[in-house]
Design goal:
Helix content is about 40%, strand content about 15%. It has about 550 residues and is of the alpha/beta class. The chain has a six-stranded parallel beta sheet with strand order 3-2-4-5-7-6, sandwiched between helices. Helix 9 links the parallel strand 9 and strand 10. The chain starts with a strand and ends with a helix.
Length: about 550
């Protein structure tokens, strides 16, 4: 019997196709030409980017949205090192992703050949798993293992190094291996123990986070909250896990947490932490819950057993994925009679509404609070909003009302430049939905070259660039720590509207609040990429304070010291 032969590159692409992968990003390189050839005509749509950091962030965003590993291909050396930015986001955000790196051919390994790097060593502390394939025949095996590791337990990124010659190696064609994700299921005893703790509590609260939630699981959590009259909060940059208009919504456990919500968690006698690690940012630098033993009873539900008890010792640890846990909650029979915490739910939601509705006048002709009100009014409920990192994001996180599932893409890792690639990923995956990236001036230029990608594929995203002429978060911390001695945080930026128009985008400059709504309407009606350049006052550093006030308080503190 004569075996049908193929090459390693085609074998790899067929393995991805068999696992339902329909999108991949890359910056092309000569080290993986057989893969590029195999993708020609494949059902996998390839998005070619202008820098590997943007390409890897696009893949990470696909992983967040789909629950399948986001796929990215880069070449060796500088390609791989640039792509590390997206791997870091995927690791801290618990996002399934696979980065494939073209490597020097096997016979050159260990000689520090052109652009050679030991990727197993480089990524072993940054990714969930890193490996190098040394035989084309084993490509299906390694891809299957990568798919399983990226999606099992706590999801995360996998890095596979591909020596150039294994991709052109002639190998026996074989049926690819399909790897369905395995989600751990909550057991009956754990469910019963959870019910006992809920019934015994007087001040419980749920906190949701993490990735991998289906829209159905989100609906089930809503239903549970209604039946149990349970206050539910969401963690930092996981805001679309719960409808902000729902009467059980208690707010966001993130940077600049609402004071009443913080107090509510501190006073709780039971915290149910679901699919969330509660790391530095949402935990208010590990002060919200005591480490290692919280003063509140803690039920920690997480798909990876290694995370339970890693920082916080729970009263009950439950190894379960979010979808399985949500399905189990639907059948959790509540106690008969009134719940002692019922009145607290309305109070929690009212406090969130007051915080989110509060006026926030700031210096400058463009008022970001009013900009967010216009966005809330104009955007459809299923619009996807993305952002990178910086103080500008405070306005989105506090004032935008997230209503539907999978409408937020934002890095819990605090990676600048994430918003634009994430928006491109979202629009490529769901072209029928409105996608808006909100970025700072420093943040946007971290990956601004990907406007060329938007132009190349005619991806109709809207970018809103909030330009205050500084690295705002850094300046804020400088004024707190070294008041009046800011250094290295000023920015000189291009005319962002002209920059966008150079790529063929529709673009407007907004210098006054009244100009925003008509410019937004034109941008949303446009069929291609668009950009709104908002000129804001650097003094408007947060919704509640200014740089001058921060500086004055720091100087006064120094005088007292």
């Amino acid at each position: 019997m004569t075996l049908e032969m193929t090459n390693g590159g085609r074998l790899l692409v067929e393995a991805l196709e068999a696992n339902g992968i329909r999108h991949a990003s890359c910056v092309p390189g000569e080290s993986f030409l057989p893969i590029l050839d195999a993708l020609n005509g494949s059902p996998i749509a390839l998005t070619v980017c202008r820098q590997e950091g943007g390409a890897s962030m696009i893949a990470e965003a696909w992983g967040k949205l789909s629950g399948k590993p986001g796929i990215c291909f880069v070449t060796r050396g500088p390609g791989a090192t640039n792509a590390a930015a997206g791997i870091h986001v995927a690791m801290q955000d618990s996002t399934p992703m696979i980065l494939f790196i073209g490597q020097v051919e096997r016979g050159f390994l260990g000689r520090e050949a052109f652009q050679e790097v030991d990727y197993v060593q480089m990524f072993s502390g940054l990714a969930k798993w890193a490996a190098e394939i040394n035989d084309g025949e084993r490509i299906p095996e390694f891809v299957a293992r990568a798919m399983a590791i990226a999606t099992s337990g706590r999801p995360g990124p996998v890095v596979l190094s591909l020596p150039e010659d294994i991709l052109s190696q002639q190998v026996a064609k074989r049926a690819p291996i399909e790897v369905p994700p395995i989600e751990p299921q909550i057991g009956f005893s754990d469910l019963a123990a959870l019910r006992r703790q809920l019934i015994a509590s007087k001040r419980p609260i749920f906190i949701l986070g993490g990735t991998g939630w289906s829209a159905e699981a989100r609906t089930r959590i809503h239903r549970f909250a209604e039946i149990w009259d349970m206050p539910v909060a969401v963690s930092f940059r996981r805001q679309s896990l719960f409808d902000h208009e729902h009467p059980c919504f208690a707010g966001v456990v993130g940077i600049g947490i609402e004071a009443a919500l913080k107090q509510r968690i501190e006073d709780a006698d039971l915290v149910v932490l679901v699919n969330e690690r509660l790391s530095e940012m949402p935990s208010q630098s590990y002060t919200l819950l005591d480490v290692p033993v919280p003063r509140q009873a803690l039920v920690h539900v997480f798909p990876g057993p290694d995370e339970i008890g890693r920082v916080y010792r729970p009263s009950l640890g439950i190894v379960s994925g979010p979808n399985a846990f949500a399905a189990a909650l639907v059948g959790l029979e509540p106690a008969i009679g009134a719940k002692p915490w019922s009145g607290q739910v309305a109070q929690a939601h009212a406090a969130y509404r007051a915080f989110s509705d509060a006026p926030a006048p700031t210096p400058g002709a463009v008022q970001m609070r009013e900009v967010m009100a216009v966005l809330n009014d104009r955007l459809p409920e299923d619009a996807i909003i993305t952002n990178g990192a910086g103080n500008f994001a405070t306005w989105v996180h506090r004032f935008h009302r997230f209503r539907q599932a999978h409408t937020q893409l934002a890095p819990t890792s605090g990676s600048m430049g994430y918003g634009l690639p994430a928006a491109l990923a979202a629009k490529r995956m769901s072209p029928e939905r409105t996608v808006v990236v909100v970025a700072g001036d420093g943040d946007f230029l971290m990956t601004g070259q990907e406007m060329a990608t938007a132009a190349q594929y005619d991806i109709a995203i809207l970018a809103i660039v909030v330009d205050n002429g500084i690295y705002g978060t850094i300046r804020m911390h400088q004024e707190k720590t070294f008041p009046g001695r800011a250094h290295g945080s000023d920015l000189t930026s291009p005319d962002f509207a002209a920059y966008a128009r150079s790529f063929g985008a529709l673009a407007f400059t907004v210098r006054e609040t009244a100009e925003f709504a008509p410019a937004l309407d034109l941008a949303l009606a446009h069929r291609g990429p668009a950009l709104l350049h908002l000129i804001t006052d650097p003094e408007a550093i947060t919704p509640t304070t200014t740089l001058t006030k921060i500086r004055a308080a720091a100087l006064k503190g120094q005088e007292r010291g």
